Amino acid sequence: MSTDTAATDEQDQALVARIAAGDRAAFELLFREYGERVFRYTHRLISDVTKAEEVTNDVMLEVWKTAARFEGRSKVSTWILGITRHLALNAVRRKQLDTVDVDEAAPVADEHDVPAALDHDRDVLKAALAKALGKLSTDHRDVIELTFFHGLSYQEIADVVGCPENTVKTRMFHARKQLKGYLVSAGIDPDSVEMAS
């Protein structure tokens, strides 16, 4: 874990401790830090923007209610993404929502996007990547998503999805192999695709 990552997690853990004591200002800070990230992850799992917003609120409410039980055995981001995955999958089961076919999902605004006129090639690559990701199983898409879009380690992914770390490694191996195959068959050089949120 880098020094910056460790410092950020220490700050997040301090916020969680304050939230556990009922500090609403700390909760608002944590919501600002994680709300968009939780929404984007949820939006990639379920096809309904309104439901993704509801799940995001449910996740943050769960963080508020369970902050006192956070033991710090994982990073705060891992804990929050684990709650997100659990609640999003519950929403899919409960409401029988369709999971997102990634290439059909509505785009989510991102402050890091460059003007459309400047990134036509990037859009083509992103579309190819989205289509390829949509062909992966949920388990394989999860490891790609959590690694490349959220920066989690294999152990953190294991904590989020509830399986052994070696299973995550196996899933990643197969997911990369399948993804590469899908991209090559679409005429895209896999090395030209940058997987970023």
Major sheet attributes:
none
Query: In sequence order, what are the helices and strands, one letter per element?
Result: HHHHHHHH
Highest CATH level, the class of the largest domain: Mainly Alpha
Q: What percent strand?
A: under 5%
Number of strands: 0
What is the first-to-last residue Cα distance?
Answer: 21 Å
Q: If classified by CATH, what would the architecture of the largest domain be?
A: Orthogonal Bundle
* Rg on CA atoms, Å: 17 Å
Unreliable segments (pLDDT under 50, ≥5 consecutive)? 96-119
Q: Percent helix among the residues?
A: 55-70%
Mean pLDDT: 80
Q: How many individual domains? A: 2
CATH homologous superfamily of the largest domain - what is it? Answer: RNA polymerase sigma factor, region 2, helix turn helix motif
Structure description:
69% of the residues lie in helices and 0% in strands. It starts with a helix and ends in a 12-residue tail after the last helix. 29% of the residues are buried. The protein folds into two domains: 100 residues, Orthogonal Bundle (Rna Polymerase Sigma Factor, Chain: A), CATH 1.10.1740; 86 residues, Arc Repressor Mutant, subunit A (Orthogonal Bundle), CATH 1.10.10.10. The chain has 197 residues and is an all-alpha fold.
